[in-house]
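Input sequence (236 aa), recorded before submission:
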Amino acid sequence: MTIETVLLDAGGVLVSPNWERVSETLVRHGIQVSADALRDAEPEARFAIDETHRVATTSDADRGSVYFDLVFAKGGVPAGAARQRALEDLWAYHTEHNLWEYVAPDVAPALERLVAIPVRLAIASNANGVLHRMLDRVGLTRYFHAICDSCVEGVEKPDPRFFQIVLDRAGGRAETTIHVGDLYHVDVVGARRAGLRALLLDPHGLYGDYDAERIRSLDELVESVTRARTHAAGNT
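Predicted structure, token format:
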């Protein structure tokens, strides 16, 4: 069947941590680490938290703490009281505003192309309760039929109930929906349990040994959706 609805994770797909803000916060606490060093450390840190046991036994917030510890360790941020104070400042900002606020240049054009196909778009994100406000602030809200934040909904990926909530809000059907995320054990496993086709955004090629349909960019997502809809139209 054709693709009618596309669910997108927010963090890691549409937005990423504002590493400039993180670097500036560290500097205020006497730690000189560049945004580029943190950004370069991020992919391996994210991959490291994507484990079956970790996802099954921790919450998204728990994994977020480990993720930042790994980014800091790989990025050269020394352990100690200054690092802890910087983390506390960053946590306070994240709680109020959501630190995942950087939008890459390719995001809005890809969303424009998806809307023009047309397909229905919805956000399916493990987040901290202020996701909608952050998306308003960075100008992405207008593209989506529904925005679902796990903290608000009271259930998070990979629980299939979360995906059903998003489908219901967006008016989508599982058999004509794909979900795009950046974590195998959260996004791919969860989407499959909910009866959805899953695409894994893997720009750094870290998931080559995983049973997952992978894309390297949002441009590839647009091309995949376009091909699927063209193929479906040719078979009707």
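Checked by second reader. The two ends are 10 Å apart (CA to CA).
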